[in-house]
Amino acid sequence: MLRRKPTRLELKLDDIEEFESIRKDLETRKKQKEDVDVVGGSDGEGAIGLSSDPKSREQMINDRIGYKPQPKPSNRSSQFGSFEF
């Protein structure tokens, strides 16, 4: 393997300005998202999730992710259908 000297990276004024503009843009997006979360949380849905019992919290999570649990069958005929042996 050939060894070479490390490449020197130079920080230019344009790079600094670009970094600052991107950082400001990200900060404004973050503030807007926080504002939306605060406004969205005041409609009652967030308060319900914090103060309710674990069963309704689990139901709310299942609704949010689209999971619809099916009840487990209690006897063998419902598990295997009507097979005859």
Automatic annotation (TrEMBL):
Pfam families: ANAPC_CDC26. One of its GO terms (biological process) is cell division. Keywords: Cell cycle, Cell division, Coiled coil, Mitosis, Nucleus, Ubl conjugation pathway. Residues 34-85 are annotated as: Disordered. The keyword Cell division applies. Pathway: Protein modification; protein ubiquitination. Belongs to the CDC26 family. Component of the anaphase promoting complex/cyclosome (APC/C), a cell cycle-regulated E3 ubiquitin ligase that controls progression through mitosis and the G1 phase of the cell cycle. The APC/C complex acts by mediating ubiquitination and subsequent degradation of target proteins: it mainly mediates the formation of 'Lys-11'-linked polyubiquitin chains and, to a lower extent, the formation of 'Lys-48'- and 'Lys-63'-linked polyubiquitin chains. The APC/C complex catalyzes assembly of branched 'Lys-11'-/'Lys-48'-linked branched ubiquitin chains on target proteins. This is Anaphase-promoting complex subunit CDC26. The lineage of its organism: Eukaryota, Metazoa, Chordata, Craniata, Vertebrata. The gene is CDC26.
